[in-house]
Amino acid sequence: xxxxxxxxxxxxxxxxxxxxxxxxxxxxxxxxxxxxxxxxxxxxxxxxxxxxxxxxxxxxxxxxxxxxxxxxxxxxxxxxxxxxxxxxxxxxxxxxxxxxxxxxxxxxxxxxxxxxxxxxxxxxxxxxxxxxxxxxxxxxxxxxxxxxxxxxxxxxxxxxxxxxxxxxxxxxxxxxxxxxxxxxxxxxxxxxxxxxxxxxxxxxxxxxxxxxxxxxxxxxxxxxxxxxxxxxxxxxxxxxxxxxxxxxxxxxxxxxxxxxxxxxxxxxxxxxxxxxxxxxxxxxxxxxxxxxxxxxxxxxxxxxxxxxxxxxxxxxxxxxxxxxxxxxxxxxxxxxxxxxxxxxxxxxxxxxxxxxxxxxxxxxxxxxxxxxxxxxxxxxxxxxxxxxxxxxxxxxxxxxxxxxxxxxxxxxxxxxxxxxxxxxxxxxxxxxxxxxxxxxxxxxxxxxxxxxxxxxxxxxxxxxxxxxxxxxxxxxxxxxxxxxxxxxxxxxxxxxxxxxxxxxxxxxxxxxxxxxxxxxxxxxxxxxxxxxxxxxxxxxxxxxxxxxxxxxxxxxxxxxxxxxxxxxxxxxxxxxxxxxxxxxxxxxxxxxxxxxxxxxxxxxxxxxxxxxxxxxxxxxxxxxxxxxxxxxxxxxxxxxxxxxxxxxxxxxxxxxxxxxxxxxxxxxxxxxxxxxxxxxxxxxxxxxxxxxxxxxxxxxxxxxxxxxxxxxxxxxxxxxxxxxxxxxxxxxxxxxxxxxxxxxxxxxxxxxxxxxxxxxxxxxxxxxxxxxxxxxxxxxxxxxxxxxxxxxxxxxxxxxxxxxxxxxxxxxxxxxxxxxxxxxxxxxxxxxxxxxxxxxxxxxxxxxxxxxxxxxxxxxxxxxxxxxxxxxxxxxxxxxxxxxxxxxxxxxxxxxxxxxxxxxxxxxxxxxxxxxxxxxxxxxxxxxxxxxxxxxxxxxxxxxxxxxxxxxxxxxxxxxxxx
Length: 963
Known about the structure:
EC number: 3.2.1.39
Largest sheet: 9 strands, antiparallel
Signal peptide: 1-27
GO cellular component, one term: cell surface
CATH class of the domain at 233-240 and 578-956: Mainly Alpha
Number of helices: 22
Helix content: 10-25%
Structural class: alpha+beta
Strand order of the largest sheet: 9-22-23-24-27-20-19-18-17
Catalytic activity: Hydrolysis of (1->3)-beta-D-glucosidic linkages in (1->3)-beta-D-glucans
Protein name: glucan endo-1,3-beta-D-glucosidase
Mean pLDDT: 84
Strand content: 15-25%
């Protein structure tokens, strides 16, 4: 079908070839080497032409391809790079100025044309046999625009609203925690039970053949693939209950926990937070009933705040967040309207990667989009690629005036300055791809609600917000190398260039690790990208990337000040990786603590003998991947403490046998809710929601909530088992099964055929997002920072035990990044200068969303819940992440009063006391006495904790010496 249509248009194509060649040859020299292969595009005619002619004027390079119009008729589609550009609709002809009929003999012969057709309904490619299939066309042309500066413009270049228009700054704020789409179950059961245990003869069992302590570590590529084998669980019984709305065919596995999932969840109306901006599909709603993309940025005085409550919050604020739905700027097109058949515009997504996505808006009945937004975190501009449409830039706040500022120095981009009725200043950059574009074609309507562009526009429109002048006092950028101090000038120098994708690489050498974010850019290629960095980026940015730091900053809601950085890549370096950290209790002063006084060893042995007699099989099979994993990790830590801390191999290996049996119960998929492989989204999930139709079963695991929490516990337990039993580790079924879990939540291979790359960990934000396929108007969120760290620690230790140095290195670097990012965004010492001063008194975030921070939990608002969820589990990494200064401040803020800590019941009491030990040696001794007391109440232990491990853990904080 595609081939037939292509043959029918051959005469038109041939005439366009001549015109296209003339345009190319009259513009700029063209590289004559081997061009890249063409990408499959519906009904594409690929034309490759080459020419050479020296020109001195500025130029922009673009890849051109012609494509059939999305509706029946004789119109044409240009394909530029990876974006589609639509020509006039049916019944419209190209204006005479679009092409000039000239003949110019190229100095190098042109290649033959090729036609590549694809049936969009089948996603298959058909090659037309009568033409030669060649490579993708690339050519260069220049657009001549006015280079008149603003100071030389006449007053006619300034347009002002003259009629009453919109001035709305209203939005919505979710000040009440939404629990309807989030699990609200406490993080642990309290029943422990007991059972008999068979004592084994350790001489008949294998002993550890390797040490759990690493002396050195080197990995030149920390993202080596873990494996590509099929998942070792059955396929899901049916399609996943969460539909994949508007997602176009993908070559890679879909992401479930990334910043852009609002584009394909629920009604597709929730914001996407790119930092510092947010983007949201208006979907025909709001004051203007627009169908475009809303671009927002809010200032702190616009945020909602709730005063702290005595007894719950130690900070002055309990909550703060930005309003959503305020239509500051709307990037739209006049074609995006409901048609006479009552058909509405549509939103699709394609090229869904770990750090980028393309969002497309389609007018009714069009087969290709009229506009495409490449969305990436840190974008300095929100960029829209227009495809032969009529741009419509709207604002419900209202435009007070619009000033045409002429051409930028690159002579490719036009600049407009817009003031809104709230006096916020926005810049609008127009980069046309049509050589005949006439300057100053954007007009402000009299009401100030919209700016209307020319018909048949193809090119790029970018918007950016200028910081307020009073924001200068908040600047706190170190080592600024950029000489520019005018934020507007900084924007000007990179306008016309924008990112469409991002890549990450990483290396580790000893205790130093680095990771590099590299962007693929479109638009003007001979100028730097401008991207916004978060505080943890600028703190660790390596030289010479620091030279790209500028004075341009915009406030984000939850991550402090974002700083604009010039450059196509950044490298961040961490110099304190915990590579020597093993399974033993660990302190920054001593490292792995492996020597204890006799009283401590006797106590750990006595308590451990009791601990391993608990009902291991019962506690690890309670119809929850989360609870089961916590229990497996708990008994793994007990076995390790008995084996390596105490040296009682008999008790340790006696406990290891039922632990392996319990682990095997899950490996064989015999738990209450078996795991299945979901081919729809690409992951291992509990079958629970398939059977109950409840998305929140098992903390939302079937909807990809909390996978790094759930599976991290399993991976840690497997690492301990593998360390203690080399024969178990040598069984490839065991290692492949555990690797499957790592691939699910922390995959390292972009092209893994079964799992996405880095599902949970966000390499831009420096921590994970727990929320999966559950929509929220405040974006992604995560509650437990400590379980996020546990998931990284598990990767590190599993890599160490299995000899995968790349996985081990990656886990170490993730821990170092989390240490930094948590100190900025999650765990607040008194000197924290990232979060609002009136909030940092709370010491811990509670729940961190992209758009708000709420000092609470989904399961309750007691201080021990809110603070404790950022403590558990207490493992060797805890003292690396939570320094003593912070621990002391947090304790003093909430639990210093004996009456307060005395009123804490259940497993939270044990969590708080084990954490308290990290304050200083005095508190460690106090905690030791608490856990070794003869009248210790076992209910003070949560489902992932034990007396023996806690005793060894707190004793290590006084160097293992207690007499």
